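Re-run requested by the PI after the first attempt was lost when the workstation crashed. Everything re-entered from the original request form. Ligand of interest: iron/sulfur cluster.
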Amino acid sequence: MSQTLPPIRRISGQAVVVPGDDIDTDRIIPARFLKCVTFDDLGPQLFRDERFDEDDQPKEHPLNEARADGATIMVSGDNFGCGSSREHAPQSIHKAGFEGIIAGSFAEIFFGNATTLGMACVTLQPADLRELQDLLTSNPALDVTIDVEALEVQAGDRIFQAELPSGARQSLLEGRWDPLTDLLAAADDTKALVEALGYHNGMRGRSA
Amino acid sequence: MNPPKSLFEKVWDAHSVRELPGGQTQLLIGTHLIHEVTSPQAFGMLRDRDLPVLMPERTFATVDHIVPTHSRVEPFEDEIADQMIRELRKNCDTHGIELFDITTGHQGIVHMVGPEQGITQPGSTIACGDSHTSTHGAFGAIGFGIGTSQVRDVLATQTLVMNKLKVRRIEVNGELRPGVYAKDVILHIIRTLGVKGGIGYAYEYAGDVFDRMNMEERMTVCNMSIEGGARCGYVNPDETTFEYLEGRPYVPKGAEWDAAVERWRSLASDPGCHYDDVVVIDAADIAPTVTWGINPGQAVFIDEAVPDPAEAENDAERASITEALEHMQFDPGHRMEGTPIDVAFFGSCTNARLSDFVEAASVLKGRKVAEGVEAIAVPGSQLVKAECERLGIDQVFKDAGFEWRDAGCSMCLAMNPDKLVGDQLCASSSNRNFKGRQGSATGRTVLMSPVMVMAAAVTGHVTDARRVFESKPEVVA
Ligand code: SF4
């Protein structure tokens, strides 16, 4: 049952700046939401404790502003997504509707997990990142594009050179960003190899 | 003659399905273990894509992380916990996956259930959505902790995308001194090689000390490989391994058993095989060890002082010592000996097996938990609990003032109601002392062997168990 994924060449849309470096996975999604049966409901909990106080009253936060509605691109600082390896953080960003993240750098595990979801996580040079953030602050309606193919970020008529490791870029462009597609393709080989394994071959302990 | 190979290489080669376009390996996972916390989302992903579980007979489930240990009355008080457990039951039912549920009497921490049932076998590849899957390496299996998307991958394809690891042989030779346990050995290894020292490696534990260890001790060591940065750690299978496994429910019987043993024996590392690194440690150098900081590598022998940031070798080390001392509320040069404790936690997949309970009970018998100390004993599995109760070990703990609990992860990660409060300091037989690990952001964890936890519980402070238990208890209950 092989499935093909759409190639991801470019992502365009409204962008939200979540300022700061070292935004960790606990801030992105507080630990209490790790208890969940599905990732589906994580979207609204994104940055929960930074967006709402203990009485659930909204605080001042870029994601609470009107322009965050329908945004597909997040812009942040260095070492984005550091902390734990759990997938809840990229999942909550993805479920909240984001398809791409622009940052100074990414924590490695976060980057891998986010790419597996088909999110384009690109980095900009420090000066360019600052300029982009300034542009968005003065003109929130500005449309931003992450061009995976050309390795660029476009904001209005400004074009910044972006970086994305070639393996991840390739996998987005070829629609292989989720390894499941590749793994499923080898189901026959897997079954053949299993036959040769000397353990758990069709036996059930309690019924045996 | 084939060139000599390590066990890791043999197992890797036997499970390689193919090379992937990116140069990684598609690796067959022979045994998949799941629990209630990291699997429901993965089943959801399968549903989203309308995919079946490819080989349900190769996945085994239990409940451990979130299940309460103080009461087994359902529905559980924590609604989300209750929901997650019901979800696991439903998923196992729908897909035909064996579930070691509470009612079976075989429930327990997933890394204890596998070995107890004989599901964990030499030369197999094992994956589980939990980083301490390295435990199964005690049997000469290669065990990987994986993330939720990878749980999905194993359910759907029985394979994973993996990068091949290098192999480091860690030999501990000679004799351990009295009062030094498997837990001290692994804490010492992590302290010596660092919490990042094992990144990119599988650890092969070898030498006199591991040869002599029983399976439960080997599990304690392999369990904490991940705390040293190694994705997996293993001991080559030998007579001790086969003796432990013989007769367990999931191992082959009769002639098939003999054939299996023959095969398992052939999987041990060949003499003269290549290692990417070799480390040799003298057993006599190891003393009872306790952690003083916020990662398992921040450890000292019980009679040593904790480090002083002023003497750090570089800025990064200085910062990490300072951060740890601040969190632990210790001064530079602090002595762990004499540090008062609030809680004694005896449990977790590192040290809550039968031999741990037998050893701990032998020193605890006739003694009392110090006043003001909360002490809980949580057997790792229902089988361990039942056996302790048959041997009267539960009574030793209860008489001493310990709470005697049902099986689960409990205060190891505090996803159930067992949590530290405020900045309580806990003497713990578990494996992680990260900030907040035991349920309170300011809570403090000191890792040590079960016997050292007993010494801390009865004296009310971190102390050298060898001295405390030198003499018979004065007050006999
Ligand atoms: S006992 Fe602790 S380390 Fe072991 S599986 Fe449970 S939570 Fe993880």
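Saved to the shared folder this time. Chain A has one domain: 10-176.
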